[in-house]
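Exercise 3.2. Students should predict the tertiary structure of the chain below and write it as structure tokens, then compare their answer with the key that follows.

Predict this chain's 3D structure.
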Amino acid sequence: MSDTPDTPDTSDTSQPGQADWLARARQLSTAEISDALDYFRLPGSALGIQHIAGQPQVFGPAFTVAFVPVDLATPGTVGDFLDDIPQGAVAVLDNAGRVDCTVWGGIMSRLAAHRGVGGTVIHGVCRDTAEADAAGYPLYARGRFMRTGKDRVQVRAVEQPVSLGDVRVASGDFIVADPDGVVVVPQARAQEVFERALRTRDVEDQILGAALEGMALRDARRQFGYHTLQRAGH
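Answer key:
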């Protein structure tokens, strides 16, 4: 584990305009962000990971954890990393997509909610979802299954790059989730991706407004450049 976590301080306003675009980005949907990622030809839409329990909204920097099958000679821990997750960060757990054992349960959900963790996203499964619902704690995963990961998997690395399916996640990348799924925005590209998504939202609002006032949808789309919104270079 790194001595200096690579998660960004989202409260920092030292960069001109940062507070504005970051605050506005929190209003974006995963669909809007996915379109912006397409514009820059960036991967980021985590296929197969869906809302399981708790509040259906997540926005924050990733705190990454990778799991491997347990070493029977020297077994390791499954959940002690919770003590190291900063407030507001999102736990991103890579259990290689396994659905036969969980890496997150009720005690974790209740403590994470109490400590202000932003949510948990798992390339794998979780359990004790009723406790996450009771705490209002956001859980996203491939599914739910009751069998423990204890003595089946163990933590291999913390704050190192992991995978959510075919999407790479580094510690500090932005994780955004809503009822449509999960997207990952690389930390180094966050401002341009979010600002592109905000620009697209504004154009789509103009299209909708014009159509509601009686303009034909095809004409409104043509007037405001709808068909170029996801094309880089326009």
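Discussion points: Helices lie at 18-25, 30-39, 106-115, 129-135, 190-212, 217-223. The chain has a mean pLDDT of 89.
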